[in-house]
Design brief:
Low-confidence stretches: 1-52, 252-270
CATH class of the largest domain: Mainly Alpha
Radius of gyration: 25 Å
Mean pLDDT: 78
Number of domains: 2
Number of helices: 10
CATH topology of the largest domain: Tetracycline Repressor, domain 2
Helix content: 55-70%
Order of helices and strands: EEHHHHHHHHHH
Strand order of the largest sheet: 1-2
């Protein structure tokens, strides 16, 4: 995680609430009170600096978790700080202590989503035996991507769903991180190509973008009611492997039998 505003993970001040929480959409102040929050010196005897920093870091993380949850479900336009505050169980004005604006908060979620995905993928691929077949490595990458996006991380779901919705100013850091993640997939396909395991008629760039596009789109349509995630993973692995790998030889008996089976299911014409 990056440090909070001003680089202060362990703030020397705390937020003291001096008025009741505003209702969504309410403006102005109550009974002439100007600030809804004020900053007062943190008493050293109440909490040691390192304890205060730890508490601050936990609050910041809770805000980010809440923002990822809301953003992944409501999108950029529908994400309100009042919803994030409700999810994080804090007062909405307190968010501004950690993030200068709504867009700064969303930018951090977007970047974290793809950064965490890249870190997860790096661990998964590093854990494979060195002599793992390149197509098996791609299988592992397909599973890692889908499980992390659909089952593990609201951050990644949020970043995938909102990549085309956020303003350019928010997307700059996300795009740079996404480019590094794309490089991991570029290497996976290049290794398979170098081993002679990719179809010669494929364009590597187009193939990579279409594979990632299909995997990312699962965040838009999949939910447990549509079938188990295990089934989705197996289906994706089969599609990717057979889409990238060489076509069966003309005399391949199993491929011929499969085509005949599919053809027998078609209704007769005429």
């Amino acid at each position: 995680m990056t440090p909070g505003p001003g680089g202060a993970d362990g703030p020397e001040h705390r937020v003291s609430r001096v008025s009741s929480r505003r209702r969504p959409g309410q403006t102005g102040t109550t009974q002439g009170r100007q600030p809804i929050i004020r900053f007062v010196p943190r008493k050293r005897e109440v909490a040691a600096p390192e304890e205060a920093g730890s508490k601050s870091a936990r609050t910041r993380e809770r805000i980010l978790d809440a923002a990822a949850h809301v953003l992944s479900r409501k999108g950029y336009a529908g994400t309100r700080l009042s919803d994030v505050a409700d999810q994080a169980e804090i007062q909405a004005p307190a968010i501004y202590y950690y993030f200068p604006s709504r867009d700064d908060l969303i930018e951090e979620v977007m970047w974290s989503g793809i950064a965490h995905m890249r870190e997860h993928m790096t661990r998964i691929l590093a854990a494979l035996p060195p002599d793992t077949d390149p197509l098996d490595r791609i299988d592992a990458a397909v599973e890692a991507h889908l499980r992390y996006a659909l089952e593990i991380s609201d951050y990644t779901t949020a970043s995938i769903r909102n990549a085309g919705q956020v303003p350019e100013s928010i997307a700059i850091r996300y795009t740079a991180e996404a480019s590094q993640y794309g490089d991991m997939w570029r290497k996976l396909l290049q290794d398979a190509d170098n081993a002679g395991l990719l179809r010669p008629d494929l364009d590597p760039i187009a193939a990579r973008m279409m594979v990632l596009g299909a995997l990312n789109w699962a965040a838009e349509w999949w939910n447990p009611r549509r079938g188990s995630l295990d089934t989705v993973v197996r289906t994706a692995q089969s599609l990717v492997r057979h889409g990238l790998g060489p076509r069966p030889a003309t005399g391949d008996v199993s491929g011929s039998a499969a085509r005949k089976t599919r053809a027998s299911r078609r209704p007769a014409s005429g």
